[in-house]
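Lay summary

Proteins are chains of building blocks that fold into shapes. Our project writes down both the chain and a compact code for its shape. Here are two examples, one after the other.
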Amino acid sequence: MRIRLWRHLRESLKSLVRNGWMTFASVSAVTITLLILGVSLVIAMNAQQMSNSVQGQLEVNVFLKQAVTDQQAAQVADQVRKMPGVGSVQLVTKAQGMASIKHDLAQYDNVLSGLSPQSTLPDELVVKATDPRHTLTVGRELKTLPQVAQVKDGQQVVTKLFHVLDVIRNIGLVFVAALVITAMFLISNTIKITIFSRRREIEIMKLVGATNWFIRWPFMLESLIIGVVGALIPFGVIVTAYHSLYVHTGGVFAVLMFHLVGTPVLAVRLAEVMFGIGIVIGAWGGLMSVRKFLKA
């Protein structure tokens, strides 16, 4: 079996070289299609990365009542940490809040030096939800605590933000899905045309008594090679270009200040999609196209 497979592979390579122009046309079609798909996937992955980055910055600012002492504030913080849906809680005491203000407004130190944190600032809790989409729910729960004076959860901003992110994500998914279907259609038809141009070769092989699988194997291997080479070229181009961009920018998209997807993670995802499509569609296109002629 191993010897026969090696023979089929050798014949497939010879056939690809012998039918050079058709091979070039097939590989080019696969390359261009998967290049467009690959670039779209890079954009979609980084859009998702930006979405996760923005969601990770969502927090609820809880201001306790002025009469609450630092000890009571610490007890409230412990109580909030035990609430369902709460990921982290940071307590900012009156003294810490005043020190932060004095640091930020150092030029007005003379004015601020006379202020007492006990009479001017409340204790604050900075709360993050385990799931950013539960931020508003956590905010509503915090408003029910008797020690709480005010809760800022940015309800209008958060609602609009998630709406925009959902729209962007849905558009990206539809666009990538449409490109995947288009890639499958183009690659399959290109391989079918390649095999159609060699229908006489199939007829001759049938006349001399070759079995159906003996005829199928070389064409399937040719289609697989076309799919793999057609995926390898755009994969190499995209990963090389992306890595150069990643190194040049330091891994940060300066305009919106979020970290780009790392090159290794992106390369694995691209390889899964691009080589998966190339191999599956190559094998499927070759098998179905030969099957049509074998029935004749």
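And here is the second example, written the same way.
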Amino acid sequence: MKKWVLFSFFIICCFFTNGQDYTDIVRLNVSRANFEDKGKTFDTDVTNVNFEVIYPKIINDDLILLAGLTVEHTSLDFSSVLSNQNLIMTRLNAGVKINHSEKWSGTYVVLPKLASNFENIGSRDFQIGGIALLDFQYNDNVRGKFGLYSSSENFGTIITPLLGFFYRSANKKFHMDAVLPIRLEVNYKLYNHFSLGLDLRTSVKSYNLVDQDVEFYAQEESVRVGFYGSYELFDDALLIRAKFGLDTTDYGVYASDDTSGVQLLTFTLNDDERIRLNNEFDSTLFLGLDFIYRFDISSKK
């Protein structure tokens, strides 16, 4: 069922979809929700903290070096057996942005990471991915992106086609910005420093788990869609958002050697005969706060 939720969001949002006209240099997202499993055997509080920093180094008019770090921490119980788990992901983001022509540019990033509960760190904790995005600038207010994301995971390899679009109204009060199926943002500025918006974030990734010398892994399939109020400080460079929305994240636990092979979006390309060791999580409401330091490219051109 979670697979169809993720896929439906992708199809629906493709009609609205990003070419990013700004760069979030620093981003801190904090959310909290209470999940119940569909078997109604237990519930758990889930706290998610995601911190990301990116540093763009301009070499010349056609080349920008990109370096960054992403750290994510999620605390939850999977069941009465696997309780008090801390899922930690640390990822390096290293790449380049190249202007290929007046209209076309490309962003190419390598994404090595450690993802586990950081108990007895070994080779199963390490995964590596990459992303390639081509950007077409139609005009100052409309841009499109096309690309591919792939990553090795504990369950196998995931391949995700990417489609993006950026639109900004002539009065600059309304904009849509997305790289789908990863993210989507719709924002309307009501007053000088206050805006309302909708934010969609998705992810499919895995964490190696070691519990009493027994190895498992957790596969996270997440869609968080929230409505927010945003207040902007320091010439709109610092954004503070209060968020409320729906969280459909599911954390499936499997034995470490029980894999599914290649996965396209949320669908395996062969029969998925894995045996899940915990119940599926039900959807729930969540509360969140975002703190963003943003560099507006359009205002610096």
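What can we say about the second shape? Residues 2-300 form a domain with the Outer membrane phospholipase (ompla); Chain C fold (CATH 2.40.230).
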